[in-house]
Amino acid sequence: MRRTGVIVLCLLAAGAIAWAVAQGSSPEPKNAARASDKSALAGSPAPLAALHEQANTFLDGGAPAFKAELRKLRGYPVVVNKWAAWCGPCRFEFPFLQRQAVERGKKVAFLGVNSNDNDAAAKDFVSKFPVTYPHFRDPKLAVAAVFNGVQAFPTTAFYDSKGKLAYVHQGAYASERKLAADIERYAR
Q: Regarding predicted confidence, which is higher, 35 or 90?
């Protein structure tokens, strides 16, 4: 009987998460204020500080501008996350990126790529889930193609400090711990 109760509770929890994702919501960050707190990044090296100054902005220029940004960031590992406001799994993992960008933002660059989305929805999304980095507009997946991130939403790409694409993770991270492990492993 006890085992049945545990199974029922697990099924209810899974159903609640599935419903929340279907509704387009996401778990709130454990500490939303910390997730967007740029003061924690004071004293960042100039190239990373420049990214923090562009927090939550949307950049134009497509693939050429994205590649130029990667060149500017050589010497630092880069984590690139492709997302869309309409994407439930993107919403689920975004709080993980919020926190990791604050925790690691003095040593690792973070960039967003907003693909196949409309500007109003994307701006509304980052107003609810602010981050410490900018996002490239990518209406036709040209930026995502640079890092082989066209197939899945979300996609996270990891560049090493030499500017070489080290790894591409297709789909959402199931936990912040798994994202953090990949940052440790690939963003060097």
A: 90
- Sorted by sequence, the CB contacts under 8 Å of residue 143 that are 6+ apart come out as 62, 63, 66, 82, 113, 115, 136
What's the whole-model pTM score? 0.81
What's the one-letter identity of residue 169? H
Name the pLDDT band for 40 (thresholds 50, 70, 90): confident
- Name beta bridge partners: 112: 81, 135
* Alpha-carbon span 15 to 103, nearest angstrom: 31
For strand 155-159 and strand 135-138, is the pairing parallel, antiparallel, or unpaired?
A: unpaired
Instruction: Give the C-alpha separation, 188 to 184, whole Å.
Output: 7
Residue 106 — left, alpha, or beta (φ > 0 → left; ψ -120 to 50 → alpha)? Answer: alpha
Cα maximum dimension of the chain: 61
What is the rounded distance in angstroms from the CA atom of residue 168 to the CA atom of residue 188? Answer: 14
**Total count of residues recorded for the chain:** 188
